[in-house]
């Protein structure tokens, strides 16, 4: 891609046979105006941020399809189709430059672009989807004849296990190494035999998305190399400032540094846990006080939350020590647990200052036997959840609303409704981070009684 | 054994007291003898070299040296990122540290020892490149369904849970995933580890490992939910169906009932009633069982009878609600289906204890388990350090690492490790090295053609 200053753009006759969903396999030879360089990227970034938001709110796949469709039309549409495709491609490659520059940026970009691709793919018609699969040049063969016959009975079982009726059982299956469709394997949505997965036509999206992700991941590494070795220096008066500014403006707060609303000391902690902690953290805190112990998942989730809430390292060590020594004794605490706490604060090992978990991460965790972490709206049984909510002070009416959200798997909305019921105020942005819950709660409580400790 | 009698020269250990008082089966002096004479260094080295023994031009002579090991020493000192050029370097390091625990990590892109030299900002050049696909099953994760023991204890009544876990997972690894070179190892106290060593398995990414672990995951429980297994859908996935029919059903109705009598008391059966989503059926059964509380049948017979009643009731009512259709299977799965520790399997850099280590709490050696004979495995009959030392004393120093005869305590395990696991594995590794070498040569030949 060549970035030029001239007003006129030279005719781009290079995007000839591209389908409407580009795969971004290679940077096309085009010329781009400097203004478009930045503007196109910003528009795409708006789309990606919207995707990020939707995922954080726990939207289901169909809702995400609609969201992506809306976002795309809002920010990326242009009257001329070929110009629209140009913008699509240009903006993607510009953002590659922006987001290749660190592991954290890469991870975010990879996730959002993959999600964007997934949902754009899902709304395409089946013939278009097959064409896109072809574009990737995937070597998978359809299963036919005797092999298909021998598998038929079990393929039917798989379909039925997914609540598909017999008429839904498809005619075309592709034989694919299981490594290529990890998400289908993880959810047991495919039959496996001797290392191969039998993927239905309607499951193609999984195959394609894995390819897309893998390709983009490798491309980002190469882009980073090019950036650090040549581009950054060469463009230091022109593109580099634009690129560097673009990445900082759109990531949400990560609560690594506590804000003015979040600074607690040990003596306040019990009080504050009852007044301002979201349910997940309150549960962990109560269990810690009760059992004088938490397993690893719980220690991480609660420990990082407390860090984000403003608990200093020394106070944190004192806090965990106070509880754990009641069960395991002081020596064992020092040996086995103190290190990990210091590690979380970036004082040991590779000295990363770990960020408190956002709701999306907590919801997708998998608490097992003896664990208390995770998201109560997701992981508790109805009865236990209702009991916990009533301890938080919810009325039965308020509880019904929350339970309704839970049954529809909108766990973050359930938490938001709980927040609204407890504090008697509305929360339009929705809860997507436990520390956000805490800060919002503290804001409200402090505004009511400015001097008293809350 | 008093301190004055101890000779710290590792080669010359005769324990004077013929009946040493053993408070626990483990102590550091026995450990030294073990690492001095019995630990199979060259077998472990051969295994982890995967054929790269330098005897073929296609070998990567630095492969073994890029593997991470970690040592846990006395006093809980933990040393990570250890690596060794070859077998004797590994042997020397173990014999000078006498670690309480040895863990095996991944093969990295560069020597773990030298990783700091490659640290760059932004991009990480020190990354794991290969690592066996591993699984860890620990019986403490079954505490909510075993009534004979809890916590660190294990006995012949609950160990069969591990046996059935091995069968289910092993079958699936071979039949569904096509893996062939699988090593099952006793963890030394209360669980088992599984090492899948196929080249394909070693090259799996974290995402793919996660997918395999999730494929195996059924139990989603902790004390906050009553129903910990939810088998949705109109039928079971073929993998679950096969596990049920081939292993779980019979185990539940047979050995489990005999050992655990899971319906025999109110506390026990309430737990199961809680898994039935229909209140009416619950009360119906509860009523029947409360009335029969004083029957003269044995615990086991009572339990079996109640299970039959439950099955019959659910069968007759199963059209009432879709969730009842899979209720019977859900109960069986809750009690018998394997519960693996997902975190261990998901990441390439996760360390796992090496086979043939000695467990510090029990003194037992982490010996391999033959999945085809796992019914015969008895965790309480595994050789302990003190038994091994006694054996050495009884036979003089004829104990030697190459001994794999059936006559010695450890010999059988070493023989199994060599013949059933190592040999076939190395054969296939060498074939792979040879064929990829030929391909490489073939390719470069082409570039010369004109």
Automatic annotation (TrEMBL), chain A:
Binds 1 [4Fe-4S] cluster. Its cofactor is [4Fe-4S] cluster. Keywords: 4Fe-4S, DNA replication, DNA-binding, Iron, Iron-sulfur, Metal-binding, Primosome. Belongs to the eukaryotic-type primase large subunit family. Coiled coil: none annotated. It comes from the Eukaryota. This is DNA primase large subunit. Residues 270-438 form the DNA primase large subunit C-terminal domain. DNA primase is the polymerase that synthesizes small RNA primers for the Okazaki fragments made during discontinuous DNA replication.
From TrEMBL, chain B:
It is an enzyme of class 2 (transferase). Belongs to the eukaryotic-type primase small subunit family. The gene is LOC104719854. Keywords: DNA replication, DNA-directed RNA polymerase, Metal-binding, Nucleotidyltransferase, Primosome, Transcription, Transferase. It comes from Camelina sativa. Pfam families: DNA_primase_S. CDD domains: AE_Prim_S. This is DNA primase. PANTHER family: DNA PRIMASE SMALL SUBUNIT. SUPFAM superfamilies: Prim-pol domain (SSF56747). Its EC number is 2.7.7.-.
